[in-house]
């Protein structure tokens, strides 16, 4: 941070700050315009039950199909708007788009669960449940149990009692919850005790290194154990190789998502990908691999 020392310095700093604010404002306006211009898209990444060799659903991941810059990932534009109400517009767009997509996928497999990431600011709004109920009503053919919401375990969920009651209201509608990036936050343990989650999602940073880093292996193992003792489901993200999958199954985690299974893909590629997914047997075989 620059120190304000004299009159000249102050003016210089001021102009600098002004510039920063302006840039931030412009970028936010640009993202807001992208929503209106219908430039957002959802990609989908399959979730696999490795032991059964079955696709159990998809995670919806946001992309910005920028007319000049091409496909942009959420890490590049969500942080610009996550503290403004633009994130609410985006979140509601994502919910509608996922439900619209589910209308056709439910005919293909009514047991799929589609996960949607929800920003903390959106989720904690006083009218979240009310508006979600209204959005669900726009898609009467989609059973709410096909929808799972992922909330970031590391996000500042300020008022746990409030969050808990929102989760209970959503669960009464049939929607389930996963705690995303589990283990990376400050309060994993107290969240676990106080939030009615259905699923823990092991953070990919632990999964990625677990075959070479004992500490990460212990962390992955501990999260799986926690899920089991709390009676929750558990899924690993960032599963890039069969060896990762084999280790996870030996530790008691059968559900996985990662580049080793498939990268996120546009909606119109999903059904043909599922039809041609021929690696199921390989993953099932990995279930019986000896200890590494
Ligand atoms: P996340 O929910 O933890 O999603 C997992 C991220 O890891 C995705 O990145 C996915 O493409 C990537 N990934 C999946 N498998 C692998 C793998 O095997 N290796 C590696 N290296 N990466 C893998 P993406 O799509 O860039 O999304 C980043 C984050 O942005 C998400 O993390 C989520 O927190 C947020 N996000 C994405 N879509 C939405 C959305 O619709 N709404 C909100 N609020 N946040 C979103
Ligand atoms: Mg997620
Ligand atoms: Mg995650
Ligand atoms: Mg993440």
From TrEMBL:
It comes from the Bacteria. Residues 24-278 form the EAL domain. This is EAL domain-containing protein. It comes from Duganella radicis.
């Amino acid at each position: 941070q620059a120190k304000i020392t004299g009159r000249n310095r102050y003016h210089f700093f001021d102009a600098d700050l002004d510039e920063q604010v302006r840039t931030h404002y412009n970028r936010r306006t640009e993202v807001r315009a992208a929503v209106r211009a219908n430039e957002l898209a959802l990609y989908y990444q399959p979730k696999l039950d490795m032991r059964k060799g079955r696709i159990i659903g998809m995670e919806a991941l946001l992309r910005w199909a920028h007319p000049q810059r091409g496909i942009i990932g959420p890490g590049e534009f969500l942080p610009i708007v996550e503290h403004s109400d633009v994130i609410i517009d985006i979140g509601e767009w994502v919910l509608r788009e996922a439900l619209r997509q589910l209308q056709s996928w439910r005919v293909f497999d009514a047991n799929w669960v589609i996960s949607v990431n929800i920003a903390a600011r959106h989720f904690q709004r006083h009218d979240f449940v009310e508006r979600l109920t209204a959005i669900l009503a726009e898609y009467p053919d989609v059973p709410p149990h096909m929808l799972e919401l992922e909330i970031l375990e590391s996000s500042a969920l300020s008022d746990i009692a409030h969050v808990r009651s929102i989760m209970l209201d959503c669960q009464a509608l049939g929607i389930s919850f996963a705690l995303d990036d589990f283990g990376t936050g400050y309060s994993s343990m107290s969240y676990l005790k106080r939030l009615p989650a259905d699923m823990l999602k092991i953070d990919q940073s632990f999964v990625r290194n677990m075959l070479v880093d004992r500490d990460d292996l212990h962390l992955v193992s501990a999260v799986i154990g926690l899920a089991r003792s709390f009676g929750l489901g558990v899924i690993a993200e960032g599963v890039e190789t069969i060896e990762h999958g084999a280790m996870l199954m030996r530790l008691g985690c059968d559900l996985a998502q990662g580049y080793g299974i498939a990268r996120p893909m546009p909606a119109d590629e999903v059904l043909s990908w599922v039809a041609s997914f021929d690696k199921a047997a390989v993953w099932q075989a990995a279930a019986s691999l000896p200890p590494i």
